[in-house]
Amino acid sequence: MGILEVSNVNKRFGGLQALGDVNLDIAEGTVHAIIGPNGAGKSTLLNVLVGKLIPDTGTVMFNGQSVLGRKPYEINQLGISRVFQTPEIFGDLTVIENMLIPCFAKRDGAFRMHALKSIASEKGIIEKAEHMLSDVDMTNKRGMTASSLSRGDKRRLEMAMCLVQEPKLLLLDEPTAGMARADTNNTIELLNQIHERRDITMVIIEHDMHVVFSLAKRITVLAQGSPLVEDTPENIKGHPKVKEAYLGEAAA
Amino acid sequence: MDAIILQLLNGLDKGSAYALIALGLTLIFGTLGVVNFAHGAMFMIGAFCAVTMQKILGISTITLDPEKLDFLGKPLQIKTPIVESLFGKGLGDSIINWSVPLSILLAIPVMLVLGYIMERGLIKHFYKRPHADQILVTFGLAIVLQEIVKYFYGANPIPTAAPDMFRGSIDFGVLIGFAENAIIYPAWRLVYFLFSMAIVGAVFAFLRFTTFGMVVRAGMADRETVGLLGINIDKRFTIMFGIAAAVAGLAGVMYAPINSPNYHMGMDFLVLSFVVVVVGGMGSLPGAVLAGFLLGILESFASMNEVKSVIPGIDQIIIYLVAIIILLTRPRGLMGRKGVMEE
Amino acid sequence: MLGLSKKDTTFLLVVIFLTLATPILLQPFPEGSAMAQFNAGYPDLMQRFAIYGIFAIGFNILFGLTGYLSFGHAAFLGVGSYSVVWMYKLLSYNVLPGLVLAVITSALFALFIGYISLRRSGIYFSILTLAFAQMSFNLAYSVLTPLTNGETGLQVYTDDPQILMDAASPNSPHFFGILMIESTKVNIGGWQFTFNNGYYFCAIIAIIVFYLSLRIFRSPFGTMLRAIKTNQTRMNYTGLNPRPYTLAAFVISGMYAGLAGGLLASMDPLAGAERMQWTASGEVVLMTILGGAGTLMGPVLGAGFIKYFENIFSKINDNILHSWFSALPDGVEDAVVFLVHPFIGKGWSLTLGLLFMMVVIFLPGGLIEGGTRIWNAITGKNRKSNKPGQDGKHHPKPSAHVN
Amino acid sequence: YMNEPKGGSVVFGFNVPQTGPYADEGADELRAYQLAVEHLNGEGDGGMIGTFSSKMLKGNGVLGKKVEFVSGDTQTKSDAARASAKSMIEKDGAIMITGGSSSGVAVAVQGLCQEAGIIFMAGLTHSNDTTGKDKKANGFRHFFNAYMSGAALAPVLAKNYGTDRRAYHLTADYTWGWTQQESIQAATEGVGWETVNNVLTPLATTDFSSYIAPVLNSGADVLILNHYGGNMVNSLTNAVQFGLRDKMVNGKQFEIVVPLYSELMAKGAGPNIKGVFGSTNWSWTLQDEGTKAFVKSFGEKYGFPPSNAAQTCYAQALLYADAAERAGTFDPCGIAESLEGFEFDGLGNGPTLYRKEDHQCFKDVLVMKGKEDPTNEYDALEIVEVTPRAQVEYAPDHPMFAGGDLGKCNSGA
Amino acid sequence: MSQIELIKGGAEIDRPDFSKNANQAATAPAFLSVHDIHAYYGESYIVQGVSFNVHEGEILALLGRNGAGKTSTLRAIAQIGSPQMTSGEVWLDHQALHLMSSHEASRAGLSLVPEDRRIIAGLTVEENIQLAQIAPPIGWSLERIYELFPRLGERRKQEGITLSGGEQQMLAIGRALARDIKVLLLDEPYEGLAPVIVDEIEKTLNIIKEQGITTILVEQNAVRALKLADRAVILESGEVVFDGTADEVLHNEQLRHDYLAI
Ligand SMILES: Nc1ncnc2c1ncn2[C@@H]1O[C@H](COP(=O)(O)OP(=O)(O)OP(=O)(O)O)[C@@H](O)[C@H]1O
Ligand SMILES: Nc1ncnc2c1ncn2[C@@H]1O[C@H](COP(=O)(O)OP(=O)(O)OP(=O)(O)O)[C@@H](O)[C@H]1O
Ligand SMILES: [Mg+2]
Ligand SMILES: [Mg+2]
């Protein structure tokens, strides 16, 4: 039995069937990629997983608990973190402050009023944040205001913010989009390391096949809202339907 | 029954004033996203256009009448309006009599120019600034405009009469089959109602049947991209601002005979018009108009004795109470668009 | 020291010094000189500086940190004042019970209003708070007169119970016998300095609450509040529930407002309904923005600025003008007076309006920003000239939350 | 005592509305005060000093000290008014405070002066409370009050409109409005009128249509507007718009009454006030010597006749100065003593008494009517009757004034 | 700004200077000429004297690492105002773009597809495209755009921002084509697109090229971009470090390693 079980999920937007009978079982400790053509419903599925969208039918169980109807922060507190397709960070705050917030959230829960405690005294938390920053190679940008980072850096920051929470399940929506090749490789390495060290389950949505094939242990191909096939990377590469609907020449 | 219809009329009439003021505000605030605390001042300046017109038409030549004495015992000054000497007494008098409608001719250019100067000289720099800064600068401007008017016209209300034709009241009840004297309504208020309907209709038509509205909305959401598509958004914003100023001014001109204009009348309406716009929903013109009428009607009903005797003081708070209820049940007001000013 | 960084400690010490030395600093001109008109070192105004400073500091905790713009904070000011006067009427002129009650009632009131209003954000939130405050004002002015004494304002009458009063008790507000209205006047050279008990009472409270707000700004809680302002989506997905944070900020700032209202009544035993009107709510918004929202000291400066104009400029009349310029030849004197006349005395609000505009146009970021620029100009810190009012997607935000 | 003048001059504090709706009234009050200061210091033509029955004032200042003044803005808010008064006391060393244009402000500042040990000479305040439930030993009112308005108006109304009338009241929903309504209702019921209804209107109302609309079908034939300032201008204008005055009800011409008039309101309401009855404290059209002298010096200086607010303020300044001369000191307690029970004449209101028990002046009250055919813009109101003082007097413990306590005079020592 | 200085510090030691090629390469008269532009965000100096030429009908790949200043350069060329261009000249077909505002530059035939797509909230797909057809000169018709991207046609009444990431990218490109343009600036157009669609767009770019439209392409997938492009310019820390043909980069190991890390 997997850490995340999606059964019979349907979601319609007006006349459009965005998700149709999606069943998914993600094993604990694996890296699972979801690929598929644009508009296939990948982000929609992710939104269902994090409680932002409530499906019309179906259930989503995480570690035996239903996530449906929970608020996003409750879902995060269960141990699910999410990286967005367009980076969501605290633009007005500095990079290091951006890092501290998830650390506090992890330690203190959804609400805890430390109104008179000084941040400087939170040595352990700061250390943890700094450590993560150096893991993603952003230590030299710690004092910058997050909104003035370049886009690749924003992505990296967001990922670091998620990772520092050591989630049980990490959802990544196109984590390397817009990243330079070198950084993409670094990110792959980083994710691989994290996966090995901390044994985090990851669900990745990605169009960059290089990334997908370097990371994923299993791949689900979504097309027009429904899973087309689910298999190992090797088999997917050769799958004729996938080739035609999605990979095109890239498979070559 | 007649009491209810009477209050309904009152409500519609109040509502049309609210709607008209809110309409101008919502063009700037709901559409351009500028929290314009000077909107009330523009309404006030509109009303003072009527006052000014009356003054201009009243400019007189002075002759001394040595027979009569003034309070200090000096010869009494007799004034003859120049308009009278120019056009003869008959025509001159009717021109003076029609000064309020005539002042529309004054108000439109004045308000357009004022709107233009305001937008180009000031507001332009504030589209991207935080709302708080917009509040501070427009509030400052409102005070300045107000004080300038006060400097020239004093703080006291200045009576401004409607044309004789509309000065009295109409037995409205008889028209719809009630007994005589059951529903008496002032003629000018009916004119005001029709006038606001016309303005609301004209603004709607303009924004609905041209791409102008779409472009401005797009420009609000993302100026930069609209510019990249070759559209001179600045120009359109200026036009929008000018229209809003003109609508506010016209609302003011026609309001002058209903209540004598004074320099702070804008501030009196300011809070209310913001409430109307927000209850209507940010970014929605029909919403603002609907909310204007709704609040006007509810306010009128709340001031009925039958209601007040059940809930004392309800007329003091009705508008705010309704605003709270609506905003709690409908997150974006009556017809608000998503994402406008929610951050 | 005191859980503050070294920089903050220095900052706090400077603030303490400035606050305690206010009676001297605000009295720069000798008595009787032409410029004495501009002295502000008299008890009432100094008290107001401190009290409105507290009000603005509290408001800034909500607005400056979370970005939630409340247009109804005057309601808490009013509630605070009424609480204190009621304690005078029921117990005695000792201000302590009243102030405690003021903070409690305003907290409860803020909890109620905040709980409801915070269901919405942005302008919708502002209008909800405005609506609550205006309802409070309208009711206090009319229907609630038995509780508020309506238009006249709540005050103490000789037939009030005042159960803790005996013959020896002071007949005006005091803190365990220290009379608020009592002052010590010191004459040095041509200067006269007034050291007033009431002012120092307010000043000490102001320093304490300033210290608390400094701690809040530097705390994880403060960072959370700033995070809420920036990106609530990320906040949610980071596992944090923004609502209790904003509500806590709302209640804290409501308590500051209640305390300020209570102090107003502690200095002057009267509570009027106008304190709850939207103009009063608007005033604290203006103070905060004028000084610099989100900065620690800005709102206090803004408060001082507005109160100074209201109290000092409104009192300059033509007579005083003529006496200033009497050295000039007659015609010139009249011309100068004529030119200045619209801006002073009854024109004080015109001047204030103009200054509001100037400040936002030329000093985006408020007075503090202006101060920083001047400081940089002096110390030669700025490398390149700033271009204010320039349109652009990104405005470099003042990232320093000190000053 | 507080702010005892040490040098060659003494400072008066003129606290009037300079911003807000009553700014024009405040400006007129300030003009009157400036004129009073000139006259006290021996400049100008001396105005009413010459006609004042007490001959203590010589035009050489007060007690030999030159009179100087400071002015401040009440904004017609009690908080701002108290702040302004306090700065005059604390910063400028004012020996007395005078002025104001609303009862809320008068009561607030009077309370402050009592606490601070300063004399307060009220300006325009018409609420019964100022010298009733809120009276203070250090506060004095020259202006008339709501009770007096009622007492003066009722007989005139009865004479003109008959005793069989049904009145509908619209009342501003705050303390002054209530006391005024109570007074007028009692007085008109005293002459046989019936009160159909009393509707309270919110202070912030600008459009009274929904309050006026039901009047016509309520069975009432008189509408009484217990409003002041902008409220009154608007409610009267609205009532006329609704054609009330053109209608016949119960077989009688429908009438409107505005118990408290002021010249500025009359001007603001324009032609709508024609034929409407009300009352004032004083009018520049009176023909006694004091009035003539005052109108002459005011008119020559400013180019238009003074309002009744200006007259009361001018009189208050003179009365204070005279009291100081007679007491031989600026000590508030001394001044209070010499004002209490003081009888005088020649200040435009005929023989007047400053009553000891409540510090209220008793004098004739004017019943006014909107003039049908004004000859100039200052001539909107005409005097219908000068109601003699005896008719408007009441006992100090009259129920409408009960509950207060003057307390003891406070000299701030 | 600090990071630029950091990167720069290490970069200058042992690298051959390829930027000299810049002027030698310019044989034909340039169609779009970018000359020594400097641009700032507030006080941070980002574009530090960038110059290059593009010939008519050419595809130029503008490459560089994250934060190298590619986006900023494109935005400066389009005269958006942020970053603020303080000096330098941009000429398009004898028109001085640097003297224009962004909407004038657009009317002169320049079109930018921004990196974050900038679909306008509150407008439908169709309105987003119509918006591009208000100011002259007007390019492709709605039908033609829908033919190229059928998904957009299917969703024409849907609000633009509710489209999937890839659909938004199509809309952004479609919107640019709705204007009659001489130069197309594409900022990472492949990002978020399925490989099949990328193939599709590549074909489209070739069609566009055949019609004589000049293109500047910013792309992280350098190999892919270089295969398509005629020439390449590489930026680093806001300066041009290479200007030459695309093949040169493809075949020069050291170049690729030093500046593109591939
Ligand atoms: N709120 C909405 N209203 C209507 N349609 C929607 C809404 N949100 C998404 N859709 C549609 O649902 C479909 C699935 O969208 P989704 O964002 O899940 O795609 P995706 O697989 O993530 O694609 P991409 O790889 O391009 O990001 C799309 O066709 C999209 O247009
Ligand atoms: N609005 C801004 N304010 C301040 N600095 C900025 C701003 N936008 C970008 N920068 C900085 O300018 C530099 C160049 O950014 P730019 O976005 O042009 O890089 P890029 O080459 O497009 O990178 P990427 O490949 O990540 O998109 C970066 O260091 C970035 O931090
Ligand atoms: Mg997606
Ligand atoms: Mg970029």
TrEMBL record, chain A:
User: Does the keyword Nucleotide-binding feature in the UniProt annotation?
Assistant: yes
What PROSITE patterns does the annotation carry? ABC_TRANSPORTER_2
What are the recorded GO MF terms, alphabetically? Answer: ATP binding
Residue span(s) of domain ABC transporter: 4-249
List keywords of the entry alphabetically: ATP-binding, Nucleotide-binding, Transport
Keyword Ligase present in the record's keywords: the answer is: no
Q: What is this protein called?
A: ABC transporter ATP-binding protein
Its lineage opens with: Bacteria, Pseudomonadati, Pseudomonadota, Alphaproteobacteria, Hyphomicrobiales
Automatic annotation (TrEMBL), chain B:
InterPro entries per UniProt = ABC_transp_permease, BCAA_transport_permease
Keywords attached to this entry: Amino-acid transport, Cell membrane, Membrane, Transmembrane, Transmembrane helix, Transport
Is Membrane among this UniProt entry's keywords?
yes
Q: Where in the cell is it found?
A: Cell membrane
Superkingdom of source: Bacteria
Q: Which Pfam families match?
A: BPD_transp_2
* Annotated membrane topology: Multi-pass membrane protein
Question: Membrane-spanning residues where?
Answer: 16-35, 42-64, 95-114, 191-216, 236-257, 269-298, 310-328
**Which family is this protein grouped under?**
Belongs to the binding-protein-dependent transport system permease family. LivHM subfamily.
| Protein name per the record | Branched-chain amino acid ABC transporter permease
Q: Write down the species.
A: Hoeflea algicola
Automatic annotation (TrEMBL), chain C:
Question: Compositional bias (Basic residues) at which positions?
Answer: 394-403
The leader peptide range reads none
Highest rank taxon of the organism: Bacteria
Q: How does it sit in the membrane?
A: Multi-pass membrane protein
Region described as Disordered: 380-403
Main subcellular localisation: membrane
Where does it reside?
Cell membrane
Keyword list (alphabetical) reads: Cell membrane, Membrane, Transmembrane, Transmembrane helix
TM region positions: 50-69, 97-116, 123-144, 198-217, 244-264, 284-309, 350-368
Tagged with keyword Transmembrane: yes
InterPro entries, per this entry? ABC_transp_permease (IPR001851), LivM-like (IPR043428)
- Protein name listed in UniProt: Branched-chain amino acid ABC transporter permease
The species this protein belongs to is: Hoeflea algicola
Automatic annotation (TrEMBL), chain E:
MF annotations from Gene Ontology? ATP binding
Q: Which Gene3D superfamilies match?
A: P-loop containing nucleotide triphosphate hydrolases
Membrane-traversing stretches = none
Q: Say yes or no: keyword Nucleotide-binding present.
A: yes
Xref: Pfam families: ABC_tran
Listed InterPro entries: AAA+_ATPase (IPR003593), ABC_transporter-like_ATP-bd (IPR003439), ABC_transporter-like_CS (IPR017871), BCAA_Transport_ATP-bd_LivF (IPR052156), P-loop_NTPase (IPR027417)
PROSITE patterns (UniProt xref): ABC_TRANSPORTER_1 (PS00211), ABC_TRANSPORTER_2 (PS50893)
Keywords, sorted A to Z: Amino-acid transport, ATP-binding, Nucleotide-binding, Transport
Query: Does the record carry Nucleotide-binding as a key word?
Result: yes
Which segments constitute the ABC transporter domain?
A: 32-262
Q: What's the family?
A: Belongs to the ABC transporter superfamily.
In Swiss-Prot or TrEMBL terms, this protein is called ABC transporter ATP-binding protein
Q: Which organism is it from?
A: Hoeflea algicola
Organism phylogeny: Bacteria, Pseudomonadati, Pseudomonadota, Alphaproteobacteria, Hyphomicrobiales
